[in-house]
Amino acid sequence: MVNPLRRAGRRTNLALLVVLVAAFATGWLAFAAGQPISSTLATTAHGLLGLAVVALVPWKTVIVRRAPALRLASLLLVAIIVICLAAGFVEVFAGYGTRAGLSPIQVHVGSAVVAVGLLGWHLLRHRRQRPRRGDLSRRRLLTAGLFAIGVGTGYAALEGVGRLAGSPSASRLPTGSHRLDPGRFPATIWLFDQVPAVAGTQQVTVAGRPLPVSALDAQATVVTARLDCTSGWYAEADWSGVRLTELIAADEVGAATSLVVTSVTGYRRTFPIADAGRLWLATRCQGRLLDAGHGAPVRLVAPGRRGFWWVKWVASVELSERPALAQSPFPLQ
Ligand SMILES: Nc1nc2c(c(=O)[nH]1)N[C@H]1C(S)=C(S)[C@@H](COP(=O)(O)O)O[C@H]1N2
Ligand SMILES: [Mo]
């Protein structure tokens, strides 16, 4: 039998490009997804694509060995992709934790973003690897199918080993997150926001009406909900809050299609109006008043949505006629 690695070449490069771009895209989908089915699809696809990158390494190595000269930026690209993959495996199998203030997911996403820039440069500097019509021949598709089956088998085997070894991978959520105790999850900033100095006597404006925090706290009931942060952890806690449908009457909604929840810091998220019954303005976690880091005096609790939707330090909830889709899929602050 001929050595399959001798076929390493243009098709390997194209496959690697497709797989890397798809891995990047599914990573963002996995960040956006909060529901079990969408999360499972996104994280499984993302994991399979990551493994596919690893599986293509023997072929790509043959290509790199043939290269007359290696550019520093290309070697850097390799190093960063290795870091990205390694951080991904650490996140899945070792669980959540921080070293030097960084979690595995932060390293994973940070290196992926750098890698995309370098990959763009790499593609510009190297000879075009054009697709040809034969690339989709039945024989090629069969090869691709066998490759996919191999990657899928590897994925299942790793999941099995994780389970047998009692690794944190076995108990991760469909989103990939690992459990933390409700009393001890970290105060988390999405990107550049900062804990504000808010006075204890704050008011929250709901649909134009100022509402004292004390009134909100007095009216609060307990809602058990899972805060699932994209940095790799989740915590299930008892929050005390008031449902938005109790604060905004149905006849007030009028032509509004969305709710804009804005923090005193300017951080904001827009929700479809139909979500109002699934959103709470919360003053407490585990029976205790929120502390500054976790959003005091009032934060949003949005079960079923990833952590970045749980706006902290809420200043206002406003009705809006702009559709919820007309916002950046992720906060920029
Ligand atoms: N105003 C504001 N709200 C915010 C954030 C932020 O940076 N600013 N971070 C979000 C993210 S990414 C998460 S996971 C949760 C974290 O809540 P915690 O700090 O109570 O853990 O708050 C969300 N609410
Ligand atoms: Mo988060």
Descriptive tags:
333 residues; alpha+beta; Sulfite Oxidase, Chain A, domain 2; five-stranded mixed β-sheet; 8 helices; binds ligand MTE; binds molybdenum atom
Folded structure, characterized:
- This protein is an alpha+beta fold and 333 residues long.
- The chain folds into two domains: 4-179, no CATH class; 203-320, Oxidoreductase, molybdopterin-binding domain (Sulfite Oxidase, Chain A, domain 2).
- It is built from eight helices and eleven strands.
- Strands 1, 4, 5, 8, 9 and 10 form a six-stranded mixed beta sheet that branches. A five-stranded mixed beta sheet has the order 3-2-11-6-7.
- A hairpin with a 2-residue loop joins strand 8 (280-285) and strand 9 (288-289).
- The longest helix is centred in the middle third of the chain and has 27 residues, at 138-164.
- Ligand MTE binds next to loops.
Protein topology:
Blueprint: H1 10-32, H2 36-55, H3 57-66, H4 72-94, H5 104-125, H6 138-164, E1 178-179, E2 203-206, E3 209-212, H7 213-219, E4 221-228, E5 233-243, H8 244-247, E6 258-263, E7 268-272, E8 280-285, E9 288-289, E10 299-301, E11 314-320
Parallel strand pairs: 1-5, 2-11
Antiparallel strand pairs: 2-3, 4-5, 5-8, 6-7, 6-11, 8-9, 8-10
Helix pairs in contact: 1-2, 2-6, 4-5
Molybdenum atom binds at residues 188, 190, 229-231, 307-308.
